[in-house]
Amino acid sequence: MSTQGSSTETPKIVHDDLRVERDPDRGRIELWQKEQFIGFLGYTEQTVGEETVVILQHTIIDEAFGRRGYARALVTIVLERLKAEGFLIVPECSYVQDYLRRYPEYEPLVFKGGFEGNQ
After folding, report:
1. What residue stretches are annotated with the N-acetyltransferase domain (predicted)?
2. The sheet that has 18-23: what strands, in order across it?
3. What is the C-alpha to C-alpha distance for residues 29 and 107, in angstroms, rounded to an integer?
């Protein structure tokens, strides 16, 4: 039942009943499957000129759900939402950086200007 042997395109999201909730007080976007907490993507926002840039800091998935595609699903949902809302990102998180290499269609979301964040 494993799809690892398939070299054809793996869907970015392979789970059902996922939802994300933004928790600005804790600086994270949480991933839930029904009522089960799966993990989160830590973020901050910074205004650069007239744009709000979202700094994606770290992706944390509960150990019980690791290596099953949840991180990929979380990053996909977050990037799609930020794209729809017109935000640009600064990918500090190594997982997000790897994701962007794998899915270059999201590269236009990366903020290219000067940035005074945690370098």
Report:
1. 21-111
2. 18-23, 28-33, 36-48, 51-61, 88-91
3. 20
